TrEMBL record:
The lineage of its organism: Bacteria, Bacillati, Bacillota, Bacilli, Bacillales. This is DUF3501 family protein. It holds the Pfam family DUF3501. InterPro entries: DUF3501.
Amino acid sequence: MAEAITLRDILPLHVYRARRDEYVATMIEYKRDRRIKLFEYISILFENRQTVLFQIQELSHCEDLTDERELHEYIDIYSGMLPADDELSATLFIELDDQKRLEEVLVTLKGIEHHLFLKVGDETVKAVFEEVHDDREFTTSVHYLKFPLTNGALSYLQSHTAEAADLTIILNHPSLSAEVKLPVETVKSLQADLTSES
């Protein structure tokens, strides 16, 4: 599993703020290869220790967090997004500037949690969402999820070069379907996650 995030990893606010522009620019560039657009308003960001740590750091900046207990709470909450050795972690975003249109889309995409897959070679891995919203008439705009990899899927990722590996995200919701093959740079980044090189 990705190395745990601790309080020692969180930069003091004054240190972070002094170089925040640099950190943000670096992370934007880093996430570029890890964010996949499935549809005009749907994207997936593959998470790892770097992205999760950055999110916690940004929260501490936005909320002026200096209290260690509060920081520990955020670390505990967001550490659930860290991938284990045999899985990939991701956040699914449904984003529209038009709030009314977004509300309509969230109703239309109810049940999306049951319709997302990652095809690794010949294997198809079903996404496991942190929360399932079958008890309401709409889904949410942000979902945290994991792709648990079988031994076969892991072996495939470890034995193929990024150029040769065939990874595809599949969304087969009744109201919306999409298939997106992961670019080489994305595959490289995910392979680095699995070998603790990220």
